Structures are given as C-alpha cells and as structure tokens.
C-alpha cells in the first residue's frame, strides 16, 4: 500500500454520479429527434392518437413502464461502465501521484474513410515516465515484463500501459472487437501495452482468447489472487489499492442507489 490515504467518499461519488442519471431516462419510442424522451403523459398522447395502438391496448401505463425498464437496463449498464472508468482513472492518479491528472488518459488521432480527422480515447494510462510513486513504478515495470512474457514474442513497451475499462463484456459484436483490436495496434505502435480492465467476471472466453491472440492484455473482475488475471489483484498488488475491499465496504450504499434507480425505472411515473 502507498502511504497516501485515498478519499474514498470521493471514490464512491465518482462511481455513483453517472448511475444516478439513469433515473432521468425516458423512452423515445423511435422519435430520435426528441433528446429527452417521452414522459408518461406525452406517451399517452402519442400512442392514444394512434388508432391501432389504441385499439389493441398499447397506450397504457404498463406499456410505458415496460419500455422504460427495457431501455433503462441498457442505460444502467452503460452508466455503471462510465462509473468504473472514472473510478479506475481516479485510482491511477492517486496511486501513481501524477502531477497532472491528464496523464491518466490517452488518445490518438486517425483519419476516417471520408478523410476527416477523428480522435479516439482509451480510459486509463500508466505512463512510466510520469509515475512519481517509486514503489508503484517498480511493480508496474515488473508486471509489464511478466505479462509480455506470457503474450509470447512481443517487445516490452517503453511507455507503459493503456487501459480500456468496461463493467463487463458480454457482446460478441465483431465490429466492436475489430475496433478494440485497431486501438490495440495503435497502442503498440506508440509503445504501450493495451489492457482491457473488466470490473465483473462477465466476459466471453472466446473474446479473451481473440484479444490475447492479438497481443492485448485482459484483467477480469475475479477474486483470483493472480495480478496477471484479476483486476482486483492487479489494483492491490501493483497499484497498492484494495479495490475489492472498497466495493465490499461500500456495497450497502451502492446497492441503495442501484435499487432506487431500478424502482424508478420499473414504475410508469
């Protein structure tokens, strides 16, 4: 552990802030031009004015609640992912003692098929030249050496590690995977080891295999004590912060917020 005492209330708020936004979710019912979505009363006007939907009984509170719940579930997963990303980056800043928090981010610019410039960002970075915590620097260097040995014939990157942070990875969308691998290729070209940090254990084994075959690192939210496998072991043994213990101690507060969000989404009002 580092000698620094983290502000865990700030960590908790960092994680929960995007999740609370889910309470404001409103379904759009295919009307994409309405950014805020429909309230219950607006939905009743929309569906009540549609003769067929009115005839078959789809203009009801229950139908609105069903739509809100369906879209809201996607919103919860997305916002939990954003909370994970922000929390992980905050931990990196604190444990490395970065002078500038921007060191914890990494982005690059590429060209689209239409010739326009596009900036792509990854969620976290351990930039070796900027880590002021010597203990963490030594452990990160050793971890990179050990991980690269496990990946096979790769040259240890000079600059450090860049992270793509996710709450889970259940999708087998090939387009998304190809984009991830493209990011990894650019990371290697810039002398960074690309690593996927998955907070849950929800990732398909085929995806893990494909990413490792493409020289990507994977850390998963298991309680395995190996920092080459477990995100929580990596945080504790390499960064010096017990992230698993944080979630266990703050579990009741987090559950309370999640339950409030779910109750809101499952109601019509």
Tell me what the structure shows.
This protein has 269 residues and is an alpha/beta fold. It has one domain (8-265). Helices cover 51% and strands 13% of the residues. It contains ten helices and six strands; from the N terminus they run H-H-H-H-E-E-E-H-E-H-E-H-E-H-H-H. The protein has a four-stranded mixed beta sheet, sandwiched between helices. A two-stranded antiparallel ribbon has the order 1-2. A hairpin with a 5-residue loop joins strand 1 and strand 2. Helix 1 (8-20) runs antiparallel to helix 4 and helix 1 (8-20) packs parallel to helix 10. The longest helix is centred in the first third of the chain and has 36 residues, at 61-96. The relative contact order is 0.13. The model has no long low-confidence stretch (mean pLDDT 90).
Task: List the main descriptive attributes of the protein structure presented here.
single chain; about 270 residues; alpha/beta; 4-stranded mixed sheet; two-stranded antiparallel ribbon; globular
């Amino acid at each position: 552990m580092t000698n620094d005492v983290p502000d865990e209330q700030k960590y908790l708020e960092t994680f929960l802030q995007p999740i609370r936004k889910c309470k404001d979710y409103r379904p759009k019912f295919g009307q994409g031009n309405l950014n805020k979505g429909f309230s219950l009363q607006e939905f009743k006007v929309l569906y009540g004015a549609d003769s067929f939907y009115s005839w078959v009984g789809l203009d009801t509170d229950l139908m609105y609640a069903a739509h809100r719940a369906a879209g809201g579930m996607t919103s919860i997963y997305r916002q939990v992912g954003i909370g994970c990303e922000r929390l992980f980056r905050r931990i990196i800043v604190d444990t490395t003692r970065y002078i500038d928090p921007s060191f914890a981010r990494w982005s690059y610019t590429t060209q689209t098929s239409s010739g326009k410039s596009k900036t792509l960002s990854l969620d976290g970075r351990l930039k070796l030249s900027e880590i002021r915590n010597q203990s963490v620097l030594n452990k990160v260097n050793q971890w990179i050496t050990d991980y690269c040995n496990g990946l096979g014939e790769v040259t240890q990157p000079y600059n450090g590690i860049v992270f793509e942070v996710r709450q889970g990875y259940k999708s087998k969308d090939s387009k998304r995977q190809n984009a991830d691998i493209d990011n990894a290729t650019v990371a290697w070209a810039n002398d960074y080891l690309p690593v996927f940090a998955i907070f849950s254990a929800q990732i398909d084994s085929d995806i893990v295999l494909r990413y490792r075959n493409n020289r990507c690192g994977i850390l998963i939210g298991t309680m395995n004590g190996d920092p080459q496998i477990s995100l929580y072991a990596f945080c504790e043994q390499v960064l010096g912060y017990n992230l698993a213990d944080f979630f266990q101690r703050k579990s009741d507060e987090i559950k309370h917020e999640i339950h409030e969000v779910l109750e809101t989404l499952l109601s019509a009002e």
